Amino acid sequence: MATLIHRLEYAGYDFGPEHPFTPARLAMLLDLIRSLGHAAPTVAAPAATREDILSVHDEAFVEMVEALDRGEARLEAGRFGLGTQDNPIFPGMDLAGRWLAGGALHGARLLMEGADTRVLQLGGGLHHAQKDRAAGFCLYNDLAVAIRAMVDHGWRVAYLDIDLHHGDGVQNLFYDQDRVLTLSLHETGHYLYPGTGHIHELGTGAARGLSLNIPLEPFTESESYLEAFEAVVPRALEQFAPHVLVVQAGADAHFADPLGDLALTTQAFESLYRRILGLATEHTQGRVLFTLGGGYEAQVVARVWTILYLTLMDLPIPEALPEAWLARWEHLLGPEVGHTLHDPVPAYPEFPGREERSRRNRDVVDRLLDSLLRYWF
Q1: Cis preceding-peptide flag for 352 (omega within 30 of 0)
Q2: Cβ contacts of 371 within 8 Å, gap of 6 or more
Q3: Residue 30 near residue 122, CB atoms below 8 Å
Q4: Taking a C-beta distance cutoff of 8 angstroms, is the pair 214, 184 a contact?
Q5: Contact at 8 Å (CB) between 163 and 269?
Q6: Where residue 336 sits, what CATH number does that domain have?
Q7: CA gap 119, 5 in Å, rounded
Q8: Residue 334, pLDDT above cutoff 80
Q9: Is residue 40 part of a domain?
Q10: Element (H, E) at 120
Q11: What residue numbers bound the domain in which 260 lies?
Q12: What pLDDT, on a 0 to 100 scale, did the predictor assign at position 39?
């Protein structure tokens, strides 16, 4: 079982009707969980304070967000990543960002207090937000706020990012800090935003060897992805010996996501979630905080995150999607949506070059592990 964190105010994190990071994703998810017969009671966490946000962000950046939120025109907004196509200005954005950061922070506090060992923040995962600017749909870095609180508590924190995109903001904020291990599996930055997450990005100073990236080839399928995960993540956790695991559980590595080219199935996501929980049991006394993240295909994110919820709650995974839910969301799902929670088998025609992609991914993993020999083992 797990504690679920959510509140209606999360819907206020809304860049507008044409933006892919839509709050409808969460509405669909919560509706699907309820439609499957689960009450899914949630904890309504308080918003993060200004001081909480300043634990990881520069004051000049926060002041800019606040000024734009008040409706003040600022010519230098673009320098802070605001007013861009990715991060448009919207009313209430400061408080909306603090609500999401507050959810992750509250989850961290529940773990630190021993109130639970599994927490799922039904929102957030804003891993691109940088110390001094917004980026990639991310305003305040809720993950970093939570991690900072746990580090200040005296814990070593392992951060695992399974989003399609590199978790650059979290990596950068803790790049020189030896109590945080960051691990990111993502489509290679040679082809995809944010263009970072290469294997030579290993951390600096006392934290050298604690920033680990596994950049994967486009069209990497489930088997190769899980092979790379197994080659690196368990060994890294064993070496680092964390007190807690923080997971950004973006769903955009799914094969149907429109913003990238990894090719995981829902079955692979379930395997991944179960493996992560097993690693938490093995290394952190079960303590794990999950947030959501990216995911831009409506019928995918609701299914993938429902599987995450069911896995965390130790509930069975049903075969069929509720017909009433399909009817309510038909306007977003489209006419071609399937009627099962998991993908069909096979889920798609095999992409050409599978063996070569797998070979390249193994080569990346081998080179990463070779580069870590001087810091590990």
Answers
A1: no
A2: 199, 200, 202
A3: yes
A4: yes
A5: no
A6: 3.40.800.20
A7: 8
A8: no
A9: yes
A10: strand 118-121
A11: 3-343+350-372
A12: 86
145 by DSSP, 3-state: which?
A: helix
CA–CA separation, 221 and 267 (whole Å): 12
What pLDDT was estimated at residue 338? 87
| CB neighbours of residue 239 within 10 Å | 14
Separation of alpha carbons 294 and 276, rounded Å: 18
In this predicted structure, the answer to whether residue 109 has a pLDDT above a threshold of 80 is yes
> Which of 57, 106, 127, 128 is the catalytic position?
128
Residue listed under structure tokens 């002041």: 63
Q: How confident is the model at residue 101 (pLDDT cuts 50, 70, 90)?
A: very high
Which phi and psi angles does 340 have, rounded to 5°?
-120, 150
Residue 157: inside a domain, yes or no?
yes
**What's residue 377's pLDDT?**
60
- What the block records as the tokens of 340 is 């099962």
Handedness of CA 160, 100, 262, 222 (dihedral sign): positive
Q: What percentage of the chain reaches a pLDDT higher than 70?
A: 100
pLDDT number for residue 353: 96
What is the number of structural domains in the chain?
Answer: 1
Question: One-letter amino acid identity for 57?
Answer: H
Mean pLDDT of 103-116: 98
First to last CA, the chain: 35
Indicate if 339 belongs to the active site.
no
Residue type, 121: Q
b/e map 148-166, b = 16+ CB within 10 Å: bbbbeeebbbbbbbbbbbb
Any domain includes 377: no
- Tell me if 194 is assigned to some domain: yes
pTM above 0.90, yes or no: yes
Residues 201-229 have a mean pLDDT of 98
With bands split at pLDDT 50, 70 and 90, how would you rate the model's confidence at 1? confident
Q: What is the pLDDT of residue 230?
A: 98
